[in-house]
Amino acid sequence: MNIISYNIRGLGRGIKWAAIRRMVHKEQIDLLCIQKTKRESIHRSACQALWGDREIGWESQPVNNTAGGLLCIWSEKVFKLQSSNIGSGYIMLVGKWLKEDQQVCIVNVYSPCDIHGKRQLWETLKQLKTSQNGDLWCIMGDFNNIRNNDERVGSCYREQGDNSIEEFNEWIADLEVEEAPRLGRKFTWYRPNGSVKSRLDIFLL
Question: Structural domain tally of the chain?
């Protein structure tokens, strides 16, 4: 199953939509998880236009105060949705990977920036995974957190009581998932002037 996570930083139209259609076709994508759509609503016709095909399923979470917004689109020829769970900062899809006849859970994440919001999201996802134990899991997106200090350059600021690096790694270990190997550039977020850069987007299996 070919899954792609895409932090789009505003879905817009025109160039970005055409780029998504080309990517879906070129990479033969089965399921696409987009973060930061910055859209209050998304309709089926828009998803079909993005995908370039009518035989698709989709779930979305609207933007919250101009920030975030999540969208999942998939080929119904490959993935059959059985249930979904949409909460603050995530979309969870539970369904059947048809080719392998395998139950899978796919979670698209856009985490809050503050440590309290992160902890709440982590605990929610931990409870969801416990309730679906035994399935294949894929958790991906923008976690707004680094796993070690080498994943951030130009800033080392942390709020008082923020042990997010340690807590994030403990959460990943508790979930019994592993980070997929890195490909491409080391950092996934850059300040426009390049003075600060971080690796905030990861893929857990």
Answer: 1
